[in-house]
Amino acid sequence: QVQLLESGGGSVQAGGSLSLSCAASGYRASNYLARHCMGWFRQYPGKEREGVAKMQTDGITTYAPSVKGRFTISRDNAKNTLYLQMNMLKPEDTAMYYCAAMNIFCSEYLNWGQGTQVTVSS
Question: Which of 27, 55, 63, 107 shows its CA 20 to 30 Å from the CA of 41?
Answer without folding.
Answer: 27
